[in-house]
Amino acid sequence: TERPKATVNVQPAGHVFIRERVTLTCGIESGDDWNYEWYKNNNLLRDAQRKKYQISNVDQTHAGDYTCKGTQSTGRIYTHTSAAVTLTVSAVKVKPTITSNPEGAALTGNTVTLYCKLHQSAGWTFYWSKHTQSSENETITNVYTISSVSPSDGGQYRCRAGRGNPVYYTHYSDALWVNVTG
Fold first, then answer.
1. Which of 28, 93, 135, 182 is buried deepest, with most CB atoms within 10 A?
2. Which residues constitute the signal peptide according to the record (predicted)?
3. Whole-prediction pTM value?
């Protein structure tokens, strides 16, 4: 019979930052009662023998190619080794860029859309702050819309992004002025 295939899934995907939490999951397409083996750069990880391999405080020593495979407790059935998944770890916190549409002044009653641009992998929640507010507004996408703007909506806006639990935050963007005119 054909040996089952193993696959590795990484959360957050691929590119992570120092101090983030990373979870690698070994998926096996059939059967139960697997014993798991994890490898980093083809070296067996002796402390990783479960379906999920979690790194709670990632640093650059964790970067590399990860694979897994499984054997059933009887030892008679074993999987193919999974394809390698590369984990890249960045030491530098990223800083998003904030832009607006329209650029420049907005007329009272019009809509202003702010964009928080982050050139990194997925899984981020975006946080928006205005210099006069003590709390942040949260969005799942990188877009923040102010409908029917009034002069009180004018001011400095910044954004940042976060992901994971505990949340890893990027730096704040530079401030963007939203000017509302009559």
1. 28
2. none
3. 0.73
